[in-house]
Write a structure and sequence with these properties.
It contains 24 helices and 22 strands. The protein is of the alpha+beta class and 639 residues long. Helix 5 runs parallel beside helix 23, helix 11 runs parallel beside helix 23 and helix 14 crosses helix 15.
């Protein structure tokens, strides 16, 4: 009994009829049957209403069997029994109302889902499709081209209130952009000439020129849209929650109905009880709450791929963090150049930066930045090979330069030695032509709110936090001590991280990371959380949760939203079940006629939906994603 989206080009009313055709058909059959009965054709009316109800019951039976074959439990059994029972005992009006109740419940569910998903859909609707490209640099001639045809370096025009099509830099003297769809911040972002402008930002009141720095496929907004599209299309894993209640609720309802029939001797009592034993609260509550939670998360810059993630994250007992770019800002500062082997400090830094320009690691950017600050030129490489998690090996002119971890550099220069570093510092080792050339001592300080975030997790009752990093022992120890993390593991390869997460006893385990080397462990953890503000990397693609804002505090918010969403789903289910049980017990004494019972069950379904929709709204005291009062603040105040 699925519903289909309305074909394009139809009126809204026609679209609703096409989408909710079973509701419309049930109303038509009910009205025609009533007219026939009033006209004296009671037999024809009975055949029409009864036959239609049994056909619908047969459809639900087929769906239930398919669900059972797929390994799930069919929660439609009570609906089928209620329809058949009311037809058999001659309560045809009640049978039609039961059908209308089921079809209407699914229609309400679909409507609620669409309403709760509006934040996700808003991103998809605003996906830019075209760009205004200058024919020549500086020319006033502009052509409209598909964004897939925009190349790096193209000069583009962004008109007032238009969406920036690709990542770019601003060429105008200054401009203001609405970045709420990217960062969740409600205030406009002021940009100056040369500043980065992310795709998906909405231009202010003045037309501006930008220079593309990424093609469409690699731009921020398109990557976000891809994640959102996947999240919105992935069906929430709701059967598991329904399964906890479906079997006992079905058994109880059948026993109560059978007992009422046995005691009274009237089979109508069985039908009256079963009419009120609708499975709609089980079917509706979880998906509405989960999609509401997804919408609420999206408002805060957190993309959750499916409803099942909420269940696992809400029960998380351990949270494991990567260091660089996750607990730290990922923008290390060069503290010292320690040259060796007869090299000068500037010479060593220039060679290292020339090799690092071919690396994607965050440490590479800091080395190049330090070279630029000293006005040291970057030399082109004849060849370059980045070794994931180890470093980069490049041929600079006639020299072979290796930059990276001590183990990597030592494999090429056996005389390489471990440099003493202070807590929180890290060393980038350099070898030239097989000889140890020295090390670059850097420091990547923790994020300002990292400690508060860890306190927030503790306030939520998560007992176990770990740090896993590929950095040296001294670096890991310094950051762990600074943040108050007792358990950490240093010098980890991706396989080491996967093995460690697999060995943790306190589960479920959530892993938070940001780099390409974190992708395997994010995929293997019970819940993978990617810091994706700097672009959708392999980490984002393999994670269950993607944080679109460069704010580690969002980890606490993701856990808090997950717990609230699951709580609301369970509360809504219990609300529906409790109301149904009370009404069934009353109906067992013959107080509630079948027709009235069917109408009352509609009220129960509506109450269940309204209760589940609370997941789409902020929690009491939460003022939204602007940062004025975050879930982290709320949790810390509760300590």
């Amino acid at each position: 009994m699925t519903t289909a989206p309305p074909p394009t080009g139809r009126s809204p009313a026609a679209g609703l009829l096409a989408r909710y055709w079973l509701v419309a058909l049930t109303i038509v059959v009910g009205v025609v049957s009533a007219v026939l009965a009033l006209a004296g054709a009671a037999t024809v009316a009975a055949w029409l209403a009864g036959g239609f109800a049994l056909l619908v019951a047969a459809g639900y039976t087929v769906r239930m069997i398919r669900t059972l074959r797929g390994g799930g439990l069919g929660v439609d059994l009570l609906a089928v029994v209620a329809i058949v029972a009311t037809v058999v005992v001659g309560e045809l009006a009640a049978a039609i109302i039961v059908v209308l109740m089921l079809a209407g419940g699914e229609a309400l569910e679909d409507y609620a889902n669409r309403r709760a998903r509006r934040e996700l859909d808003a991103l998809l609707r605003r996906d830019p499709r075209t760009a205004h490209r200058y024919v020549f640099d500086g020319s006033t001639a502009v052509e409209d081209v598909p964004i897939d045809e925009v190349h790096v370096g193209d000069i583009l025009l962004v008109r007032p209130a238009e969406v920036v099509p690709v990542d770019a830099v601003l060429l105008a003297e200054h401009a203001a952009f609405d970045v709420s769809s990217i960062t969740g911040e409600s205030l406009p972002a002021e940009k100056q000439e040369g500043d980065e402008v992310l795709s998906g930002s909405v231009n202010g009141t003045a037309a501006v020129r930008i220079r593309a720095t990424q093609v469409a496929a690699d731009s921020q907004y398109q990557q976000i849209v891809a994640l959102v599209a996947q999240a919105s299309k992935t069906k929430a894993r709701v059967v598991r929650i329904a399964d906890r209640f479906a079997v006992p609720f079905t058994v109880f309802s059948l026993l109560l109905g059978g007992l009422a029939w046995f005691v009274s001797g009237d089979p109508v009592r069985f039908a009256e009880v079963l009419v009120l034993a609708s499975p709609c609260p089980l079917i509706i509550a979880a998906p509405v709450a989960f999609i509401g939670g997804m919408s609420r998360s999206a408002k805060s810059g957190i993309i959750v791929r499916n409803g099942g993630v909420f269940e696992r994250l809400a029960r998380a007992r351990t949270v494991v963090f990567d260091k660089t770019g996750t607990l730290t800002g990922g923008r290390p500062i060069l503290m010292e150049v320690r040259a060796a082997g007869g090299f000068e400090a500037d010479e060593l830094l220039a060679l290292a930066a020339s090799a690092e320009q071919y690396s994607s690691h965050v440490l590479a950017a800091s080395v190049m930045r330090a070279a630029a600050e000293r006005s040291l030129p970057l030399l082109p490489a004849v060849s370059a090979d980045e070794r994931a998690t180890d470093g980069v090996l490049a041929r600079i002119g006639e020299r072979t330069v290796a930059v990276g971890k001590l183990s990597f550099v030592r494999s090429l220069a056996p005389d390489a030695r471990r440099e003493p570093i202070a807590p929180g510092e890290l060393a980038v080792y350099v070898a030239v032509d097989g000889v140890y050339a020295g090390a670059l001592i850097e420091r990547d300080p923790p994020r300002e709110n990292a400690r508060d975030m860890l306190h927030g997790l503790a306030a939520l009752g998560i007992p176990h936090v770990e740090l896993l990093t590929g950095d040296a022992q001294e670096t890991a120890a310094g950051v762990a001590a600074e943040l108050g993390i007792d358990d950490y593991l240093a010098e980890c390869l991706p396989a080491d991280k996967v093995a460690r997460v697999a060995s943790i006893a306190e589960r479920p385990v959530a892993m938070v990371g940001d780099g390409v080397n974190d992708a395997p462990v994010l995929a293997s953890a019970d819940v993978g959380i990617a810091m994706g503000a700097k672009g959708a990397t392999a980490a984002s693609e393999s994670a269950d949760v993607v944080i679109l804002v460069d704010d580690i505090g969002k980890v606490v918010e993701a856990v808090a939203i997950s717990r609230r969403t699951v709580t609301i789903a369970l509360q809504s289910i219990w609300l529906g079940i409790a109301a149904s049980v009370v009404l069934m017990c009353i109906a067992a004494f013959g107080v509630i006629p079948a027709v009235v019972g069917a109408l009352l069950q509609e009220v129960v379904d509506l109450a269940t939906i309204l209760a589940a929709l609370r997941a789409a709204r902020p929690a009491p005291g939460d003022r939204g994603p602007s940062g004025r009062r975050s879930a982290l603040d709320h949790q810390l105040e509760q300590r």
